[in-house]
Amino acid sequence: TFNVQAKEINEKEFKVLKAPLDEITISPVVFENKDSDFKLAGTVFAPKTMKSDDKLPAIIVQGPMGATKEQTQSLYAMNLAAKGYITFVYDYSYIGSSEGSPRGYEDPDVKASDIKSAVEFFKTYPNVDANRMGAVGICGSGVYLPYAVLKGAKDLKAIASVNPFTIIDTVPFDEKQVVKDKAEYEKSGKIVRMPDMIEPGSEGAEYYANPERGAVTNRTTFITWSQPTWKAFHPTTLVKDLTVPYLIIVGENAFTRQGAEAMFENVASLDKKLVVISNARHFDMYDGEQYAGPSIEAILEFFKSRL
To answer: What is the pLDDT of residues 149-163, one digit of tens each?
Structure first.
């Protein structure tokens, strides 16, 4: 497990960042993954002050591994939209409301393809200034996003990772059993899933099991044959070739902090910044007012001069 047991926390004092619904417009969209032809479901947020002929700087926000678009990425995207950006979230292939079967297949190359397709779609969207596009990746997407840039998402002028999940390549698994599981699926359609990585009583459960925070009805666990793709994926080393302006934000007490700092040290970009959010654990930064708020402010400050 990668979710440390929850420390004592006074839930009454834990305030969730609000979505500025009275300051934005919300538009559902559908676009295609250019490699698989899967139709992907998304949502565009824009400031209510936007005029029909405006061209605004744009930010695409990608969420944690397995997270649907209704979760933390929308909270970030809505708050960024309220500050003058046109923003976009979507469900990756195989999860949420997007196409792809079996559900819960998690592959970094598929994620990179989805991100590239999202960039291609959004740069032609009305009111988007294609010359001022950035992106944010939270948790798992914090490592998929730089990978997508290296794989061809070149229209992004700057990117940010929030608590990047760098330990994806250390997940232990039974290689022989995974091969059997995949063969059985191809033969009979039987799906074998991993145990839920969000364990009861964990810090992650504080978010994902709480309907006031991150609980959704369309969340699914990963299929077992996702895991070999993770083993071959090394986030902390691949960024040695990343030259785009890059912001990394991490919680002071996050279990992902060590990996985030290793990524920062290895990033080739000469324009990079590391921000540590005081007292924050990993999942606190998904929606905690005193943690997600400063994280969004750091994103706004970094993108201000680069988009």
So the answer is: 999 999 999 999 999
The one-letter amino acid at 125:
Y
- Put simply, whether the predicted model's pTM sits higher than 0.90 gets the answer yes
Report the DSSP beta bridge partners of residue 27. 44
| Cα separation, 251 vs 288, whole angstroms | 11
Q: Give the tens place of pLDDT for each residue, 29-51.
A: 999 999 999 999 999 999 999 99
Q: How many other C-beta atoms lie within 10 A of the C-beta of residue 177? A: 12
Strand, coil or helix: what is 28? Answer: strand
Helix (H, G, I), strand (E, B) or coil at 246: strand
State which amino acid sits at residue 147.
Answer: Y
| DSSP state at residue 194 | P
φ, ψ of residue 157 to 5 degrees: the values are -85, -20
d(CA 240, CA 232): 16
Alpha carbons 288 and 307: distance in angstroms, whole number: 26
CB contact at 8 A, 247 and 302: yes
Amino acid at 74: S
Which tokens go with 145? 């996003």
Please name the amino acid found at residue 294. Answer: P
Using N-to-C axis directions, what is the helix angle for 289-304 and 72-81, rounded to 10°?
50
